[in-house]
């Protein structure tokens, strides 16, 4: 659960229908005191690149225009980029700093814990070191890092895919994927560890808060899907109109539960980027749908999504007897640069023409 103190999600039900949303909870740092993510990201990426030798640099650095930038995955396969295990100790520190620059403390802890679960899987599956290696995570920098330039980077491996695009000082973090297998470690010295507990528990808290009629609308399939529906597609698109329970059909305490769920995903990022995600929720006003599939009790395969015009959250816990989580934040308008990237190219073209 988030420990943020919460006020009512709305001033009144009339505020929802009027399209006005409130940012509840303790305010994030003001813009005047916050550390701005683009500056930290660019500085950290340049420090890492400067520490690499020529062979490493050839793997880590990729042209921004390369099609690889949009080729993201979350399964254990070979990728382009420089693996953490192929770095020297001090290079690994710099790579870890780059990962941390795009995440909050909570998000960073999730990321490194997910990496460490490869050791747990290695024992559970009696797998080879090559297949389950907690340092088999790839770092890729696209273009030339600069706070106000056009570039990006990705940290990716099994159950982690954090994709960042920086355009004229604006950062888009999407797709942003975290997974956990096992969702709960049930044997061994780490027994009881739940890396993505809040993502799972707050979903149940929301579905549990609904009355019978609301549940009938929210549950779009009695059987949970085998995976998130958007999978690793380059464009996050679902077929048909948004389904599930619309926000205007929710009561005040249910809207609080919805906001708490979204905030878990937002607060994976540094404060200024987390604030942007919550502003996207506020801007969505009444156009928000919560959908569920599968069982409604812990231990049963289940899936949920939060869909707005601006972003999509999906989470499933279905595989390995409902002990294997996939969760993702997709930006529906700006992913991999989106509109911001088109504006950048349009501006450059106009400037070039004079």
Structure description:
- This protein has helices spanning 13-17, 37-50, 54-60, 89-101, 105-125, 197-209, 212-218, 252-266, 271-284, 319-322, 338-353; strands at residues 61-62, 82-83, 138-143, 150-157, 160-167, 170-180, 219-221, 245-246, 289-294, 302-307, 311-317, 325-331.
- The protein is of the alpha+beta class.
- Strands 1, 2, 3, 4, 5, 6, 7, 8, 9, 10, 11 and 12 form a 12-stranded mixed sheet that branches.
- Strand 10 (302-307) and strand 11 form a beta hairpin.
- Domain unit count: 1
Low-confidence stretches: 1-33, 349-354
Helical content, roughly? 25-40%
Structural class: alpha+beta
Task: Report the principal-axis shape.
Answer: globular
Largest sheet: 12 strands, mixed
Residue share in β-strands: 15-25%
**Number of helical stretches of at least 4 residues:** 11
- What is the straight-line distance between the termini? 54 Å
Supply Rg.
Answer: 20 Å
Mean pLDDT: 89
Order of helices and strands: HHHEEHHEEEEHHEEHHEEEHEH
- Number of strand elements: 12
């Amino acid at each position: 659960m988030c420990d943020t103190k919460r006020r009512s999600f709305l001033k009144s039900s009339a505020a929802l229908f009027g399209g006005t949303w409130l940012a509840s909870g303790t305010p994030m740092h003001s813009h005047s005191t916050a550390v701005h993510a683009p500056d930290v990201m660019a500085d950290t990426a340049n420090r890492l690149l400067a520490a690499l030798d020529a062979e490493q640099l050839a793997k880590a650095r990729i042209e921004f225009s390369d099609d690889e930038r949009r080729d993201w995955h979350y399964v254990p396969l070979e990728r382009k980029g420089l693996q953490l295990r192929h770095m020297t100790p001090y290079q690994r520190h710099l790579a870890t700093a780059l990962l941390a620059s795009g995440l909050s403390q909570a998000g960073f802890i999730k990321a490194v814990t997910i990496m460490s679960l490869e050791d747990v899987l290695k024992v559970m599956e009696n797998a080879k070191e090559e297949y389950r290696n907690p340092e088999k995570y790839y770092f890729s920098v696209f273009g030339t890092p600069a706070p106000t330039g056009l570039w990006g980077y990705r940290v990716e491996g099994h159950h982690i895919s954090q994709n960042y695009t920086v355009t004229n000082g604006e950062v888009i973090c999407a797709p942003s994927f975290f997974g956990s297998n096992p969702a709960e470690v049930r044997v061994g010295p780490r027994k009881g560890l739940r890396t993505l507990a809040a993502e799972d528990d707050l979903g149940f808290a929301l579905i549990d808060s609904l009355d019978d009629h609301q549940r009938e609308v929210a549950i779009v399939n009695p059987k949970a899907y085998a995976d998130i529906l958007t999978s690793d597609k380059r464009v996050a698109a679902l077929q048909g109109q948004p389904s599930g329970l619309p926000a205007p059909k929710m009561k005040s305490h249910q809207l609080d539960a919805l906001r708490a769920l979204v905030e878990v995903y937002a607060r994976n990022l540094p404060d200024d980027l987390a604030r942007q995600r919550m502003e996207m929720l506020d801007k969505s006003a009444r156009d928000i749908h919560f959908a569920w599939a599968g069982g409604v009790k812990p231990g049963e395969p289940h899936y949920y999504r939060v869909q707005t015009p601006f972003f999509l959250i999906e989470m499933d816990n279905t595989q390995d007897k409902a002990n294997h989580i996939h969760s993702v934040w997709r930006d529906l308008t700006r992913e991999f640069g989106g509109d911001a990237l088109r504006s950048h190219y349009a501006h450059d073209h106009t400037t070039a023409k004079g």
